[in-house]
Amino acid sequence: MESNQIIKIVVIGPESTGKSTLSEQLADHYHTSWCPEYAREYLLKHGTSYSYDDLLTIAQGQIKLEEKHEGEVRKSESPKDGKILPGATDFRTSGLPEFQSSGLRDFRTSRLLFIDTDMYVMKVWCDFVYGKCHQYILDEIKNRKYDLYLLCNVDLPWVKDELREYPDLETREKLYRIYKDLMTHQSVPWVDISGNYEERLQKAIAAVDALVK
């Protein structure tokens, strides 16, 4: 990887599989940023009776939000001045064992961005509800580059909120199989994330550590 490259890790999967929680936990663990799901903000503002065209608007909003967070991570640290991300521990001078034992690059040369939702999620949403997908979403799947996918399994209990649509396990398992099939047929490394919240976090950390060594 280039020294100034942002490493982008996407957390995906069906609804109520802990994607946002895991994204935030990982950002906290690595002292970096995460990009939330734009759809939640959009639907809370405009209501849950969405249309096919709304999904295009949501996809475009997700891309803009991701690019905003990527820009913020890029600006937050410059290899030239040796600054680290706000709130990050400077392992260069701390003497803590994490820098020696974890295999992680220091944040002068490797910057992580965790992303809750990408265009694969939008494709599944479009296909599952409407049986078709906007060309914009398909084009962005081809054009955008990521470094790792964390696919959240459906073994967490479903948690009801005003935006979730599929409480039955059969539908959740069907959606998970769709995501797994997508992961299997693309080239970016991916890891299945299952178990309770702590087990999921540890599996995700292990995958990220392996990526950035």
Task: Please tell me about this protein's structure.
There is one protein chain. 51% of the residues lie in helices and 12% in strands. The chain is an alpha/beta fold and 213 residues long. It has helices at 19-30, 38-46, 52-76, 91-94, 97-101, 119-130, 135-143, 169-184, 197-212; strands spanning 6-12, 33-35, 111-116, 148-152, 190-193. The radius of gyration is 18 Å and the shape is globular. Strand 4, helix 8 (169-184) and strand 5 form a beta-alpha-beta unit. The protein is built from 9 helices and 5 strands; from the N terminus they run E-H-E-H-H-H-H-E-H-H-E-H-E-H. Helix 3 (52-76) runs antiparallel to helix 6 (119-130). The relative contact order is 0.22.
Keywords:
single chain; 213 residues; 9 helices; 5 strands; 5-stranded parallel sheet; Rossmann fold; alpha/beta
SSE order and pairing:
Elements: E1 6-12, H1 19-30, E2 33-35, H2 38-46, H3 52-76, H4 91-94, H5 97-101, E3 111-116, H6 119-130, H7 135-143, E4 148-152, H8 169-184, E5 190-193, H9 197-212
Parallel strand pairs: 1-3, 1-4, 2-3, 4-5
Give a concise summary.
Helix content is 51%, strand content 12%. It is α/β, with parallel strands linked by helices and 213 residues long.
- CATH fourth-tier homologous superfamily: P-loop containing nucleotide triphosphate hydrolases
Strand order of the largest sheet: 2-3-1-4-5
Roughly what fraction of the amino acids lie in strands? 5-15%
Q: Could you tell me the CATH topology label.
A: Rossmann fold
